[in-house]
Write a structure and sequence with these properties.
This protein is mainly alpha-helical and about 325 residues long. Helix content is about 80%, strand content about 0%. This is Glycerophosphoryl diester phosphodiesterase membrane domain-containing protein. Keywords: Membrane, Transmembrane, Transmembrane helix.
Length: about 325
């Protein structure tokens, strides 16, 4: 690493990640579907943490709910299927299974294509990127599966003490829950970072899954503090962006509210339908564009971080701000 201040290094990486994200907007569509398996390391911690296993209910159900997006909603659909006949249920199960397989394939393909698009020296057509991604699908899928399984194991391990305490005393312990959170969040954060670095290494070097995971662990072990600092900065930036998006949506809701109120006062069904349809489509487009852009930004940021840590000239120099502070003193 250069002797630049670590904050300047982070700023340079994030500025370049933003430039790639903004200039290559066609990658956003890959980012939308890639979010089904991984958002890029940082927001996975927030989403998994919010759905963290709580005391009560079925442990297996909560493990699935905390590991796979949409599990709860899928369970509701399956419960409602009991009112149909066996033939209809079989058709629906086959249909839903095919949809899930298709979405999973599309998500892994998009994740692989996204990294390929970021890696490319120039902005390439999405079809070219997609065709190039086929060679890595199985290895990326393996990493994603291992990440989900490891996440479920972490949830189970960090939940067992609370379940044991609740079974013994039937009361809630704040201290155990606090310790549980202290262990769980860093573990999920590290797992998410290792996952995205492994995916990047597979695509960057054509390595095996084992080699990619080993390299990702070596990167984290060597630059663990810088990695956590970088993840924290990313998390703060994305959180601020989410609040800005919320503010924009609320601000743009004012004209919609005026038109909506006018449709109710005039009793115009046409205005009512048009207003709701246009605002719904607009809000959906904004959310999807924002989601695709944010995921693309995260993958770009981690790809540039990976390239920085794998720099052959200075692979082991500390880039963490705290370490540089102690080095200067």
């Amino acid at each position: 690493m250069s002797n630049k201040n670590s904050t300047a290094i982070y700023r340079t990486l994030l500025r370049e990640a933003w430039r790639l994200t903004w200039q290559r907007k066609t990658l956003w569509i890959f980012g939308i579907f890639a979010a089904f398996v991984s958002t890029g390391g940082v927001m996975d911690v927030a989403t998994t943490g919010i759905r963290r296993v709580q005391v009560g209910g079925s442990l297996l159900q909560q493990l699935f709910d905390s590991s796979f997006s949409g599990y709860t909603q899928m369970g509701k659909y399956i419960a409602q299927m009991q009112m149909f006949g066996s033939f209809q249920i079989s058709i629906m199960i086959i249909f839903m299974t095919l949809i899930m397989i298709g979405l999973l394939f599309l998500a892994v393909l998009s994740q692989t294509s996204l990294v390929h698009g970021i890696k490319a020296s120039t902005h390439e057509h999405p079809n070219i990127i997609r065709k190039r991604a086929h060679d890595h699908l199985f290895r990326i899928f393996t990493i994603d599966v291992l990440t989900k399984v490891s996440g479920a194991v972490l949830i189970c391990i960090t939940t067992l003490p609370m379940l044991w305490y609740y079974a013994e005393f039937t009361t809630y312990s704040f201290s155990i829950a606090f310790i549980q959170i202290l262990i769980f969040f860093p573990a999920v954060l590290i797992l998410s970072i290792l996952s995205i670095l492994s995916v990047i290494h597979v695509i960057e070097t054509e390595s095996t899954v084992v080699e990619a995971i080993t390299t990702a662990w070596q990167i984290f072990k060597t630059h663990w503090l810088a990695t956590l600092e970088y993840a924290f900065i990313l998390f703060c930036l994305i959180s601020i962006s989410c609040f800005i998006l919320l503010g924009i949506i609320i601000f743009l809701s004012v004209p919609y509210a005026i038109v909506y109120t006018a449709s109710l006062l005039t009793g115009s069904f046409v205005i009512f339908v048009v207003a709701n349809a246009l605002y719904g489509l607009f809000a959906l487009a904004v959310v999807f564009a924002f989601g695709g852009g944010i995921v693309t930004f995260q993958y770009s940021a981690w790809y540039l971080f990976y390239k920085r840590t794998e720099h052959r000239s200075h692979p082991k120099l500390p880039i963490a701000k705290i370490l540089r502070f102690f080095t200067r003193t």
